[in-house]
Design goal:
The chain has 9 helices and 17 strands. The protein has helices spanning 66-83, 100-103, 117-126, 146-156, 197-211, 217-226, 239-267, 278-282, 302-309; strands spanning 2-8, 12-17, 20-25, 28-30, 43-45, 48-52, 92-98, 127-130, 133-143, 163-169, 174-180, 183-184, 190-192, 228-231, 234-237, 270-274, 292-294.
Length: 310
C-alpha cells in the first residue's frame, strides 16, 4: 500500500509522499467555457469542469467554510495524487485531517446517514469518481494539529507528565489541542474560526481602498507572503501596512488565548505553535511567554510529516 499525507488547508494544501514534500494553493475555479483545449489540466467532477491550484487562482471560489472542503476535497486530493504520479490502479492510504471546529459537529450534507462531519467527510473522500475514473482509498483521519504535535515530539521528545498545548494557526481556524500526560484531552481541546483569514480579509479591504483593485483571497494570501503588490507594473512595498494588520491580529489572538485557556497555558510545560500561520507569528515570538515554542522551520509541513510518520 502506498501512503500519502495531505493537509488540505484553506490557503494551501500540503503534501508528503515518500521523500517528496510540496504545496499548492487550495484554489478551485469553474471552467466556464466548453473550449478547454487551451486550458490547463482540468477535472471533470460531478458534471462540471474545474481547475485546481495555481491555474485556478484568478477566478477561485471563496474557501472559508466546511462546505468548501466537503465539496472540493475530492479534486484537491486528486491533484495531489497527480503531482505524485499516483493512479487509480494504486492501492493508496490517505492520511489527512479535519479541524476540531468541524470534527464533531452535525453533518451538513448527508444528515440522515452520519452522526458527525468526521464520518461524513471520511465517506466523501473514500471513493471519488472524476474524469471517468474511479478511485478508492483507505482513509486515516486525524484532528487538525495532531500531526504537528506528533512531529514536534518526535524531534524534541514526548512529555510523560503534565500539560502541554498545541496551537495550530491555520487559514480559517485555530485548533487548540491540550495534552495531559502525553494524551489528548478531547473535552478541553477546542477550535475557533479566527485563523489568519482575519489578516487576509483586512488586507484585502485595505488594498481595495488604497489601489481600487479587486483581488481573490488566494491572491491576497500570496501578497501577504511577498509583502509586495504590482500596480500598473510598479512594485509597491506593503511591509508597513501588513505589519500594522498583523500586529493587531497578534494582540487579539494572545488576548483571546489567555482569556480562554489562561490557567492551562500558565501551567503547561510547553505551548507549541504550528501551522502556516506560525510563519507570521514567529516574527513576534518575543511577545509570547517563555513556555511558547516554535518549530525550527517549515511550519506548514509539520502536520503532513506527523500524519505520514504517525
Amino acid at each position: 500500500m502506498k501512503k500519502i499525507a495531505i493537509d488540505i488547508g484553506y490557503g494551501h494544501t500540503k503534501v508528503k509522499y515518500n521523500n517528496k514534500e510540496f504545496k499548492f494553493p487550495t484554489a478551485i475555479s469553474l471552467v466556464k467555457t466548453q473550449m478547454v483545449s487551451n486550458q490547463s489540466k482540468f477535472y471533470f467532477f460531478e458534471g462540471k469542469k474545474y481547475l485546481v491550484g495555481e491555474d485556478a487562482l484568478r477566478n477561485a471560489v471563496i474557501t472559508r467554510d466546511y462546505s468548501f472542503i466537503y465539496k472540493y476535497a475530492p479534486i484537491i486530493i486528486l491533484e495531489a495524487l497527480s503531482r505524485c504520479e499516483l493512479s487509480p490502479k494504486d492501492d493508496i492510504q490517505i492520511m489527512t485531517g479535519l479541524s476540531l471546529y468541524d470534527l464533531e459537529k452535525a453533518p451538513e450534507f448527508e444528515t440522515s446517514k452520519f452522526a458527525t462531519r468526521k464520518d461524513e467527510f471520511k465517506n466523501r473522500i473514500s471513493s471519488i469518481v472524476a474524469n471517468d475514473e474511479k478511485y478508492e482509498f483507505n482513509i486515516k483521519l486525524y484532528a487538525q494539529g495532531q500531526g504537528s504535535w506528533n512531529y514536534f515530539c518526535k524531534n524534541n521528545g514526548y512529555l510523560d507528565s503534565g500539560y502541554e498545548v498545541l496551537i495550530d494557526i491555520g487559514y480559517r481556524t485555530n485548533d487548540i489541542i491540550i495534552f495531559k500526560d502525553g494524551k489528548p484531552e478531547k473535552s478541553e481541546s477546542n477550535a475557533d474560526d479566527k485563523g489568519i483569514n482575519i489578516i487576509n480579509v483586512e488586507l484585502k479591504q485595505v488594498l481595495n481602498k488604497k489601489y481600487d483593485i479587486t483581488l481573490t483571497e488566494q491572491e491576497v494570501n500570496e501578497i501577504l507572503k511577498t509583502k509586495k503588490i504590482s500596480i500598473y507594473g510598479a512594485e509597491k512595498d506593503l511591509n508597513i501596512i501588513i505589519e500594522e494588520i498583523v500586529d493587531g491580529y497578534t494582540e487579539v489572538l494572545i488576548g483571546s488565548l489567555k482569556a480562554e485557556y489562561g490557567s492551562i497555558l500558565k501551567s503547561s510545560k510547553r505551548v507549541i505553535i504550528s501551522g502556516g500561520g506560525a510563519y507570521i507569528l514567529h516574527e513576534y515570538k518575543n511577545r509570547f511567554p517563555k513556555n511558547v515554542v516554535f518549530e525550527k522551520k517549515d511550519f506548514e509541513y509539520s502536520n503532513v510529516r506527523g500524519y505520514y510518520n504517525g
